[in-house]
Specification:
The complex is a heterodimer.
Chain A lengths: L3 E4 L2 E5 L4 E7 L5 E7 L6 E6 L5 E4 L2 E5 L5 E6 L8 E8 L7 E3 L3 E6 L1
Parallel strand pairs in A: 2-11
Antiparallel strand pairs in A: 1-3, 3-8, 4-5, 4-9, 6-7, 7-8, 9-10, 9-11
Chain B lengths: L4 E3 L2 E4 L5 E6 L6 E8 L3 E9 L2 E4 L8 E7 L2 E6 L8 E8 L6 E2 L3 E5 L1
Parallel strand pairs in B: 2-11
Antiparallel strand pairs in B: 1-3, 3-8, 4-5, 4-9, 5-6, 7-8, 9-10, 9-11
Classes of the chains: A mainly beta, B mainly beta.
Chain lengths: 112, 112
């Protein structure tokens, strides 16, 4: 299957700090998604990106579709304790319909 | 909207037993996905359906796994016979033709 690498693998930050994480692939994708998963729950869709260079926000979250189409970035501003969880990127290729490949995840811990 | 519904939420069984996981997708969604999540392998796509038809089952680990979608509101994932290495969290997700999928809460399977 496709390999999507996320970095960093884990982050420990102080409440109020900004967070940046990214996702890279060796393949070109035409759709990028960002999900958050909390313990014992399924992933929840945060942001969807459909065009290279696109920058989309959802509250304190901002994600960008890389211009090479091989990467995407997620930023969280002014982190709060409830931001804790694992963040996954997912990418889809044009010729695979709605099939998404998931990244390895970035675990975020926010210290109050 | 109730979201994607999965049952059971937890299943503990003994090696060799048959296991059936159930999923009710969000009404109106035409794609349904079965994922498996483990610490070692992350989120893996097992199979997905479009309009109740299996499109890609290349992620199904072996013949012991089978999935059906008899109608637009119900799908099952069956493991027969189950083995300890099948222990994982199994997610069902559904989506419209475009955009990201909505995940269910998952079924945590433990095979002893």
């Amino acid at each position: 299957g496709q390999q999507l690498n996320q970095s960093p693998q884990s982050m420990f930050i102080q409440e109020g700090e900004d967070v940046s994480m990214n996702c890279t692939s060796s393949s070109i994708f035409n759709t990028w998604l960002w999900y958050k998963q909390e313990p014992g729950e399924g992933p929840v869709l945060l942001i969807a990106l459909y065009k290279a260079g696109e920058l989309t926000s959802n509250g304190r979250l901002t994600a960008q579709f890389g211009i090479t189409r091989k990467d995407s970035f997620l930023n969280i501003s002014a982190s709060i304790p409830s931001d804790v969880g694992i963040y996954f990127c997912a990418g889809s290729k044009r010729n695979t319909g709605n099939q998404f490949y998931f990244g390895t995840g970035t675990s975020l811990t926010v210290i109050p | 909207d109730a979201g994607v519904i999965q049952s059971p939420r937890h299943e503990v069984t003994e090696m060799g037993q048959e296991v059936t996981l159930r999923c009710k997708p969000i009404s109106g969604h035409d794609y349904l996905f079965w994922y498996r999540q483990t610490m070692m392998r992350g989120l893996e796509l097992l199979i997905y359906f479009n309009n109740n038809v299996p499109i890609d089952d290349s992620g199904m680990p072996e013949d012991r796994f089978s999935a059906k979608m008899p109608n637009a509101s119900f799908s099952t994932l069956k493991i027969q016979p189950s083995e300890p290495r099948d222990s994982a969290v199994y997610f069902c997700a559904s989506s419209l033709s475009s955009g990201g999928a909505d995940f269910g809460p998952g079924t945590r399977l433990t095979v002893l």
